[in-house]
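Exercise: predict the fold of this chain.
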Amino acid sequence: MIAIADGGSTKVDWRIMFDNEEFMAFSSKGYNPFFWKFEAVAKDLTATIPEGLDPNLLKEVHFYGSGCSDESRCKIIKDAFQIIFPNATIVVEHDLLASARSTCGANAGIACILGTGSNSCEYDGTDITDNVTNLGFMLGDEGSGGDLGKRIIRSYFYREMPADLCTKLEAVYPMDKSAVFDKIYVDKSPNVYLAKFSKFCSHNNSHPFIQQLAKSAFNEFITRHVLKYSGHQTYPIHFIGSVAFHFKSILEEVILEHNLKMGIVIKKPIDNLVRYHIGQEIVQ
């Protein structure tokens, strides 16, 4: 019995694969080790495991996670999981590898993440060969849900947002300056809070102001990341993540304007990751 899990900063999708090829699916919170401590991960996941699943029976756990970018960060997750799944071999990988395996499969390409955060890599069909540095939600994450959230908040407080959108925004989110500042500068997961505003964008994606805001964010992501890869003119550009999925048409428009080749867009990589791990071809 093996577990395959793909985690952003907001949520982790889990698939437990049994010997008869049946599987169990469940979700947990997103365990980004930049924001989660070892003890908190272990406590939260222990409380999340579904009834009827004996964690002692798991032999392998393959976790792809946002923020699992170096050995020390991966160790936070690995050590927490080892307590919960004592008999399993724990493999912790960056979510970039999940994006590459779930979109490119065995082919070369450029895989991008546009979810709560953003990232990208060049992939040769086996390994990640290049990665433009991701500076995180404070300095980077261009084109992500967090980026859209920052753009929404700035446009609101700088009086750049049209009045009709201001009214809609105030009906959904408390836009008191103190409340917003507490969420960003005091709470432990400001990136997740900022990304919540991307839902407002998706619900109003027909508004010209939102379309221009999203297009500007995607242009910045393509320019600062995708165009830096040596194969950007020949490889397909694939995307995973909720932002890419909900703004696919605007993303395609930006890709075409840069004379690039649009690849596939999937909301979540988990199903293709399962296919990868059991030796099946991914769904394009």
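Check your answer against the key: The beta strands are 2-7, 11-17, 23-29, 60-65, 89-94, 109-114, 118-123, 128-130, 236-240, 261-266.
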